[in-house]
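Protocol step 4 of 6: structure prediction from sequence.
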Amino acid sequence: MEIIIKETPEKVADEILKRLKKIINKKRHPVIGLPTGNTPKIIYKKMIEAHKKGEMDFSDIIIFAHDEYVGIPGNHPNSTKTYFKENLLNELNIPEKNLFFINGTPDDLKVECRKVEEAIRDVGGIDFQLFGIGKDGHIGFNEPGSSLNSRTRVKPLTFSTIRYLSKIFGSEEETPRFCITMGVGTIMDSKEVAIVAFGYEKKDAVKRCVEGPITSAFPASIIQMHPKAKVYLDEKAASLLDEKEYYKWAYENKEKMYDYLKNKKEV
């Protein structure tokens, strides 16, 4: 697991953009999983800016959304599909056929969950999964108590998540109680998993995710087991990490290490 700590959310977003550029340039049809929420908006803004400058071409990229509220159609103002159109997709040259959104109003919920797993399998797996992290450790909508080997499924939302979402939906009565979400096991099958967090309000969650025990009570902690996991943080979100200075030193000196090993091998 690699911990990347930068001074501000702006600089963190620059690091993620740099990583996305490498992935997009490396593979013909890169498959990217992206989250909703406030945290990634600064990243999406930079993706749009890079595209408008001609620095990134998204015409071959395949996008997967992680989740959708049950009972919410794609044209609902608070659906995942609407979020992505408003915050990213309307500004990028991604073909409609390359976008995968979960259907929140299917005839059969179990069939829809299988479709997600099959769609991921059919494109050869997800190359890069980006997530925010909830204060309670949820990733996607894998709430505390989620099986660490779970697949895409219907998941009830916690009371705290419902209270938070009520600000978006207008009231708790209007807020959905269930969602379809990629499972923790589905996420862990991705070739690379990245979590991003900003601000002091996420510092406890980051501490538990990075340095705490691995437990289903805090689903994000499972990324400690991923062979290619990255955690992108600003200084505030990283403020409680015991090994914060070591993580910063290791990342800043990574290229020197590679150069050293390469030179030693050549000798």
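Step 5 (inspection) to follow. The chain has a mean pLDDT of 94.
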